[in-house]
Amino acid sequence: SHRRGPRADMVPEIAAAVGFVSGLLRTRGCVSEQQLQVFSGALREALTEHYKHHWFPEKPFKGSGYRCIRINHRMDPIISKAASQIGLSLPQLYQLLPSELTLWVDPYEVSYRIGEDGSICVLYEATKPPSSYGGMLTCKNQMMLGRTSPSKNYIMTVSS
């Protein structure tokens, strides 16, 4: 609360995403707590690096497609790289994690969906500073509308 203006760091968002993926690995009980710690650290570093130049608190949805972590019968390379640090192979990862998982890590909101038709659950939400970007469709909403390109911003016309 001592900060002024939009929060520039990605700490809580990345922590939420990392905690979620680690939690999925933990539920199967095949990975030790020590391994989970190493995995979490590796994933946190990888995401921080990956998002470094793709994080815009003033435009939270900009770059959303780039930040999206996705397992769609293909493992997200960031997850597999962190998992390789604790000796988890791809086949093991496929057994431990959902075969279809989408994780959206955006400024002020982290959410996920398991299964292509699953409902979207919010993991972390912070109050956004008031601004004019409320009308933009997120990567998530575009996907719900069947749009494929997260690079374009579709403007929603809101009829009152």
UniProtKB/TrEMBL annotation:
<dbReference type="InterPro" id="IPR002087">
    <property type="entry name" value="Anti_prolifrtn"/>
</dbReference>
<dbReference type="GO" id="GO:0008285">
    <property type="term" value="P:negative regulation of cell population proliferation"/>
</dbReference>
<protein>
    <submittedName>
        <fullName>BTG2 protein</fullName>
    </submittedName>
</protein>
<dbReference type="InterPro" id="IPR036054">
    <property type="entry name" value="BTG-like_sf"/>
</dbReference>
<comment type="similarity">
    <text>Belongs to the BTG family.</text>
</comment>
<dbReference type="InterPro" id="IPR033332">
    <property type="entry name" value="BTG"/>
</dbReference>
<feature type="domain" description="Anti-proliferative protein">
    <location>
        <begin position="51"/>
        <end position="71"/>
    </location>
</feature>
<feature type="domain" description="Anti-proliferative protein">
    <location>
        <begin position="97"/>
        <end position="116"/>
    </location>
</feature>
<dbReference type="GO" id="GO:0005634">
    <property type="term" value="C:nucleus"/>
</dbReference>
<dbReference type="Pfam" id="PF07742">
    <property type="entry name" value="BTG"/>
</dbReference>
<dbReference type="GO" id="GO:0005737">
    <property type="term" value="C:cytoplasm"/>
</dbReference>
